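User: Can you recover a sequence for this backbone? Please restate the input before giving your answer.

Assistant: Of course. Working from this structure:
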């Protein structure tokens, strides 16, 4: 999975390094290393798809950011207003996470 800047993730970089090494040498040792790195990356992606953890993390960041933006835009908000807004944003987060239970894996 590439990051938002278009750069490769660490897993993609390791896989590309292993592929380049194998393409240069074509030894069994380098083929085995490439297969292992690729297997780890595939396993990681499958785990993310089964658990939805990457989406949960994204929703959590979104929730925290939206609360932070509210606080910046409303520096004189009362504690009651802040509590109401936080509850609303956390409810949105919880709804998004709950929806993952019914989302298709692939």
């Amino acid at each position: 999975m590439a990051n938002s800047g278009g750069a490769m993730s660490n897993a993609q970089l390791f896989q590309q390094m292993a592929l380049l090494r194998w393409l240069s040498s074509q030894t069994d040792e380098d083929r085995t290393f490439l297969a292992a790195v690729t297997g780890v990356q595939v396993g990681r992606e499958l785990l993310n798809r089964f658990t939805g953890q990457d989406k949960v993390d994204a929703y959590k960041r979104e929730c925290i950011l939206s609360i932070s933006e509210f606080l910046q835009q409303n520096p004189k908000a009362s504690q009651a207003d802040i509590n109401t807004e936080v509850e609303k944003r956390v409810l949105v987060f919880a709804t998004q996470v709950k929806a993952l239970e019914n989302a298709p894996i692939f």
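That completes the design. Helices lie at 10-25, 28-51, 53-73, 79-100.
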